[in-house]
Specification:
It comes from Kribbella turkmenica. This protein is 77% helix and 2% strand. It has 226 residues and is mostly helical. The chain has a two-stranded antiparallel sheet. Strand 1 and strand 2 form a beta hairpin. Helix 5 runs antiparallel to helix 10. It is globular, with a radius of gyration of 18 Å. The chain starts with 8 loop residues before the first helix and ends with a helix.
Length: 226
Amino acid sequence: MEQTAFDDPAYRAAAVDLLGVLAYGELTAFERIAEDAKLAPTLNDKAELAALATTEFGHFQQLRDRLVALGVDPMEAMQPFVTPLDAFHDHTAPSDWLESLVKAYVGDGLANDFYREIASFVDAETRALVLEVFADSGQAEFVVDRVRAAIAEDPKLGGRLALWGRRLVGEALSQAQRIAADRDSLAALLAGSVDRPGLDLAAIGRMFTRLTEAHTARMTALGLQA
């Protein structure tokens, strides 16, 4: 029988952890966006958010199905990440419609970038799934349009939303670091092994530069100062 990466117990644990955290992230994204739809100022906005929430749930189902195919209970795979992800969302609960949009675009965007970076170290099938799940689902255009229109109407909103965006990036980075530190398997995935190169300090520095640049680009797209 042909050997695969999943024959290595350490690699299998890391891949399952990655799929587990992503699955719970998509499940909570569905829940949050559906809840945010209640704050939508128009029926059109409500419908747009409902469509985005449906997309997020579809992503959750893809990740869940991949775990099942690996012989893993998806609920067990997600469980270790419930507390840290729920804590992040509790600390970054938006106070209004615009903050909820910025959070979905900026906060989630940074977290997604981080997990895309980790996906560079997994097998081709898992990597393809991660990249598919995090492909733009139309959220960016919707959020940028609504936030820019609101700032054009009331320029004072720009300062408040920029502060909110900076807070989100700090919380998202802290959350990612906590998860990587708490889960030895994910830390080992980034560190690599004898036959699978990982990240050295210089590469880690470049990764965080890429994350910061992507965050700045998102803030600029919204018309906000990073």
